[in-house]
């Protein structure tokens, strides 16, 4: 996460793959707040949302028992036009 912060503060180009890796790391570390924050940053930087990023953020929320956030992210994923499938549940 520190590397992502450094990239953002130095205005270096980020991409959805870097965000996906960082969000997945947050999921595995049970850091749902950071996962959601990174997903918001991804949107703020006008990167197209990816199913991988959204799914990892939802997983992090579920792992942290933050079901309301997970459901909200699921709705946002659907609204963004990403094809939600059984894997996401």
Structure commentary:
Helix 2 (16-28) runs antiparallel to helix 3 (32-44), helix 3 (32-44) runs antiparallel to helix 4 (51-63) and helix 4 runs antiparallel to helix 5. It is globular and about 30 Å long. It has helices spanning 2-9, 16-28, 32-44, 51-63, 67-79. The mean pLDDT is 81. With 89 residues, it is mainly alpha-helical.
In short:
The protein has helices spanning 2-9, 16-28, 32-44, 51-63, 67-79. By secondary structure, the chain is mainly alpha-helical.
Task: Note the topology.
Elements: H1 2-9, H2 16-28, H3 32-44, H4 51-63, H5 67-79
List keywords for this structure.
89 residues
Shape: globular
Helix tally equals: 5
Counted beta strands? 0
Distance between the termini: 26 Å
Class derived from helix and strand content: mainly alpha
Largest sheet: none
Give the topology string: H per helix, E per strand.
Answer: HHHHH
How large is the share of residues in beta strands? under 5%
Helical fraction: 55-70%
Radius of gyration, in Å, reads 12 Å
Low-confidence stretches: none
What is the average of the pLDDT values?
81
């Amino acid at each position: 996460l520190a590397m992502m912060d450094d990239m953002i503060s130095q205005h270096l180009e980020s991409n959805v793959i870097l965000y996906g890796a960082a969000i997945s790391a947050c999921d595995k570390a049970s850091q749902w707040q950071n996962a959601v924050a990174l997903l918001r940053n991804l949107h703020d930087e006008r990167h197209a949302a990816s199913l991988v990023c959204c799914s990892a953020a939802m997983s992090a929320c579920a792992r942290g028992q933050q079901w309301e956030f997970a459901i909200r992210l699921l709705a946002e994923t659907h609204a963004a036009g990403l094809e939600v499938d059984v894997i996401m549940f």
